[in-house]
Design a protein that fits this description.
With 240 residues, this protein is an alpha/beta fold. The chain is 38% helix and 20% strand. α3 crosses α8. The longest helix is centred in the C-terminal third of the chain and has 21 residues.
Length: 240
């Protein structure tokens, strides 16, 4: 791989942007196609399909036989709220291949002792979230029940096109949340992307059961990404 292609590849990966390296099998010549440039590329249909599936592979194209090496960001699970549900949800997320981060300014909850194998940031969302690179490859979960923490966190997630956003709370609690966020300028279309009450309805009651219901809903949304024809590339490969 030529140095300029390698540098561009590393730059895109560091910025958490999907990219494909197209290698001509006959000549060995390579070129790099950024996700944002796929729509105008001569190989658009096949490139789009490989981005959607997240899988590398050989293809016969108008340019000849090529190998497509797909690079997509690792999926991440960001949780606001170092609560009992998080203590179960975090290891499940890690087991399924997510990079897990928990954000909670309450230092009594956000401790290494309670979350020994997870990245924990004991800061307010406005300080903790921007450096995390939250994006379309992120599942975002708000669990604190505290508007001072969850509301700005959800606003941040909605602005960054997370593939999944969920928030703990009853329908009445969520209705109040929606009204607060509307007053901050969010639209009905944006707010409709929040899964609340959070999780698949399995009659969950305990923190462990709720965590299972949440992770099941995240997985369901992830699979919808694969089966649909999304504008954004899929994260399925990194999560599998």
């Amino acid at each position: 791989m030529k140095l300029d292609i390698l540098q561009s590849l590393n730059s895109e990966r560091q910025a958490r942007r999907a990219v494909i390296v197209v290698t001509d099998v006959a000549s060995g010549k390579q070129r790099l196609v950024k996700a944002a440039d796929v729509a105008k590329d001569p190989l658009r249909p096949v490139l789009a399909e490989h981005l959607r599936s997240g899988k590398s592979g050989m293809e016969q194209t108008a340019e000849g036989r090529v190998f497509l090496t797909v690079h997509v960001p690792a999926p991440q699970l960001v949780i606001t709220g170092a609560v009992h549900i998080s203590q179960v949800l975090a290891p499940i997320g890690k087991l399924l291949g997510y990079d897990v981060t928990i954000v909670d300014p309450r230092t009594a909850f956000a401790s290494i002792e309670r979350f020994p194998d997870v990245k924990v940031i004991a800061e307010w969302p406005d300080k903790a979230l921007p450096p995390l690179g939250i994006d379309h490859y992120t599942a975002f979960v708000a669990l604190t029940h505290d508007p001072k923490i969850d509301d700005p966190a959800l606003t941040h997630a909605l602005a960054r096109d997370c593939f999944y956003i969920g928030a703990l709370g009853s329908r009445k609690t969520h209705a109040r949340r929606v009204e607060r966020l509307k007053q901050q300028g969010l639209t009905d279309a944006e707010l409709s992307r929040i899964h609340a009450p959070i999780g698949i309805n399995i009659g969950a009651e305990s923190p462990a059961e709720i965590a299972v219901a949440i992770m099941a809903q995240i997985t369901e949304r992830l699979r919808e990404e694969v089966d649909a024809e999304p504008a954004q590339p899929s994260i399925a490969k990194a999560a599998s």
